[in-house]
Design a protein that fits this description.
single chain, alpha/beta, Rossmann fold, eight-stranded mixed β-sheet, 12 helices, globular
């Protein structure tokens, strides 16, 4: 998708679904959030920009860390997610700001000590230009810290549903692995070159394998099925094909293989990337 298409996509039904799934997604990504914040280490008094902040989980954490003398700004293109983020900040009496905007062009200059993102940087039509723009927004010596997905083959949470439903779905078109999307930054060497070309220094990629929790509660399998039909590659494919009634029992049977300790969790793997201006 182009940036304009991404804006339309995240301001439609998908944005509303992600608002409904906020608690579930934050729980599923808890290991990534903890690692991201540990690497970013926002300090009291710092200015933080959270790119693709979504419903605000990481922005709110940064705001608490920087305190009254600092600032935390969440930037996203999705009005529904931003409205939810503002409601969360108000409920927590948290001094975080949330702004709608395309991060690849937003603002002409900045002075951010930390620019961070949890899976919000892989969707730009021109990621090289976006990273160069972030560099202009950073203070001298400012830090860039973001999480992005490793290859799809290492993220069973995303590939498993599509494999389980393959015979029910129409043939899926081949896609450009570097096109904007969840796995656009899977190639660490390519991303490192983009960062260097954009002016960022000392880029480091830390591998973060983790178990992605997709089902819990009284009926973890049904919960996992619901998760897969709302979030991830299979959700859109199933909606487009109109096979929800057939997909549910198939997914329930297959996901049952991953039930352990009252939870359903599938392997995931992210890159935790750090660099400095």
């Amino acid at each position: 998708m182009s940036n304009a298409e991404q804006i339309d996509y995240w301001n439609g039904k998908v944005g509303d679904i992600w608002v409904q799934m906020q608690e579930r997604m934050d729980a599923a990504l808890t290991p990534v959030t903890a690692a991201l914040l540990a690497a970013a280490a926002p300090q009291p008094g710092e200015a933080v920009l959270d790119v693709g902040c979504g419903a605000g989980e990481t922005t709110l954490a940064a705001a608490l860390a920087v305190g009254e003398d600092g600032s935390a700004l969440g930037l996203d293109i999705s009005a529904p997610l931003l409205a939810h983020a503002r409601s969360r900040a108000e409920a927590l009496l948290c001094d975080a700001d949330f702004i709608a905007g395309d991060a690849s062009t937003w603002a002409d200059e900045g002075d951010f000590d930390l620019i961070m993102s949890r899976f919000g940087v892989m969707f730009f039509a021109d990621p090289g230009a976006a990273f160069a723009h972030f560099h202009r927004l950073a203070a001298p010596g400012g830090r860039l810290v973001f999480a992005c997905w490793q290859p799809a083959a290492r993220n069973l949470w995303a590939t498993f549903p599509m494999t389980a439903l393959a015979d029910l779905l129409p043939p899926q078109p081949a896609s450009d692995p570097h096109a904007p999307g969840p796995f656009a930054f899977a190639d660490a060497a390519r991303v490192a070159m983009m960062l260097e070309a954009a002016g960022w220094q000392d880029a480091t990629f830390h591998s973060l394998p983790f178990a992605m929790l997709i089902g819990s509660g009284d009926d973890p399998i049904a919960d996992a099925v619901s998760f897969n039909l709302k979030i991830g590659p299979a959700a859109r494919a199933v909606r487009d094909a109109g096979i929800g009634s057939d997909a549910r029992p198939r997914l329930a049977a297959e996901l049952g293989l991953y039930l352990a300790g009252g939870e359903v969790a599938l392997p995931g793997a992210a890159w935790l990337v750090t660099a400095r201006a």
